[in-house]
Amino acid sequence: MQPLIEHKWDLSIPEAINLQKELALKVQVSPLDINSLRYIGGIDCAPSTDMSKYFAAAVIWDIHTRELVEYHIADAPLTFPYVPGLLSFREIPAVIEVMKKINKKPDIFIVDGHGIAHPRGIGIAAHIGVIFDVPTFGCGKSLLYGNYQDPAHERGSTSPLMAKGKVIGNVIRTRSNVRPVFVSVGHKVDLKTATELTISCSGRFRLPEPTHLADKLVAQKENKSVIINKLL
DNA sequence: GCGACAG
DNA sequence: ATCTTGTCGC
Questions:
Q1: What is the pLDDT of residues A52-68, one digit of tens each?
Q2: What is d(CA A103, CA A99) in angstroms, rounded to the nearest whole number?
Q3: What are phi and psi of A131, to 5 degrees?
Q4: Residue A87, CB, less than 7 Å from strand C?
Q5: Residue A228 pLDDT > 60, yes or no?
Q6: Cβ of residue A206 lies below 7 Å from strand C
């Protein structure tokens, strides 16, 4: 897979913010039938120990068999600082590299991070969706933007994530009595479908299976040879 | 001006 | 993201 929209990544912070405002205009929130989704992509990233580069892991998980069908890892130089709201500029260069290795294009991608639940409406999940023009949504482990009431403690409970009087995502309890995850649309999908998919991909862990697997895979970054056994 | 602040 | 032990609970 290759990005359809290409732009510079070595930008100053003000330039990056302006680019986000432009790209935010291209974000599409549209209905997507959950029954048409079988191959679910999962993406997660992590910096190298020496902080000189960033690794990105991509997995493809079959929601029918509930098994991993493909996985890859890649890296790219780390050039951008961590600034809340500008995570895309640190991680997407590595994501572009793993995407190049994907053989079977997934029906949708779940990205570790936020979608439109972002100060300018374009978190990393939305940014990836826009430049690759594929369905994506974000599943973050903590809050970046918005307000919410804690959802009930039972698995499957949800509570709307709000900002400026609008619903920008859902806070979802994927496991009973465990901290919830923050789901927001990225591109070419609707919140209801993203929410239902998150719940149907979860159960064993706090994170939905695709993201959980990508998380475990990227954690093996520096030793990428002994991973196969431990992952399957 | 004072907090908040994905990974 | 990462530095970190034991411990509580399903």
A1: 999 999 999 999 999 99
A2: 9
A3: -70, -25
A4: no
A5: no
A6: no
For A13-141+186-201+208-219, the fitting CATH number among 3.30.420.10, 3.30.70.100, 3.30.565.10, 3.30.2170.10 is: 3.30.2170.10
pTM of model > 0.90: yes
Closest CA to A125 of A54, A31, A24: A24
Q: How distant, in Å, are the alpha carbons of A8, A9, A20 from that of A81?
A: 15, 12, 16
Distance A140 CA to B7 C1' (A): 9
Protein-proximal positions, strand C, CB < 7 A: 1-2
Taking all atoms of strand B, which protein residues have CB closer than 7 Å?
A 44-47, 82, 84-88, 112-114, 118, 123-125, 138, 140-144
DSSP structure string for A144-197: SS-B-PPPPSSTT-EEEEEETTEEEEEEE-SSTTS--EEEEEEESS-HHHHHHH
More confident residue, A5 or A222: A5
Q: Which nucleotides of B are covered by protein (CB under 7 A)?
A: 5-7
Tokens of A165: 């009087």
